[in-house]
Amino acid sequence: MPFFALDQSACRTATLENYCILQISLYCFHMNDATAVSALSALAHADRLAAFRMLVRAGPSGMASGDIAQGLSIPPTRMSFHLATLERSKLLRSWRDGRNIFYAASYDDMRQLLAFLTEDCCSGNPEICGSLGDFATTC
User: Fold this and answer.
1) Average pLDDT over every residue of 52-60
2) HSE on the CB side for 100, CA within 13 Å?
3) Per-residue buried b or exposed e for 15-29, using 16+ beta carbons within 10 Å of the residue's own CB
4) What are the beta bridge partners of residue 96?
5) Virtual CA dihedral for 53, 57, 63, 68, nearest 10 degrees?
6) Domains and CATH numbers, the chain
7) pTM of the model
8) Contact predicate 30/41, CB 8 Å
């Protein structure tokens, strides 16, 4: 499940008040220190980071867990453990199709994490930050 808890009218109100896209995602979705730490902790392992990056490249249709394990040369049981960790941190979503479990990156949650990390970038000096804010809103 994504981090959102507010209703759609709150998001529309935020838009009407001319908040930037990064701020809208922060107000309409509950990203806080604890959820950011959970996501970053999940990514702080080479196998999980590689799996997450593979799934980001794979797109919304995702990949079967066995294909991920094979593509990364990781034993399937170990890969399942890593994928479950990423899913608990809300960076992945999963679904069953027959005997296979598919995983895909949760792009909304990834954007929320990027927005959270760059919210206070460079103390409001956009010339220092460059295009970091643009990246977080367009990925």
Assistant:
1) 97
2) 11
3) eeeebeebebbbbbb
4) 101
5) -40
6) 1-30+108-139 (no CATH), 33-105 (1.10.10.10)
7) 0.72
8) no
Average pLDDT, the chain: 79
Q: Who has greater pLDDT, 87 or 138?
A: 87
Question: Tell me, what amino acid is at 135?
Answer: F
CA dist 129 and 122 (Å) reads 6
- For range 80-94, the mean pLDDT: 97
Residue 93 pairs in a beta bridge with: 104
* CA angle centred on 28, ends 2 and 87, rounded to 5°: 15
Query: What is the reported pLDDT for 31?
Result: 81
Report yes or no: 129 and 121 within 8 Å, Cβ to Cβ.
Answer: yes
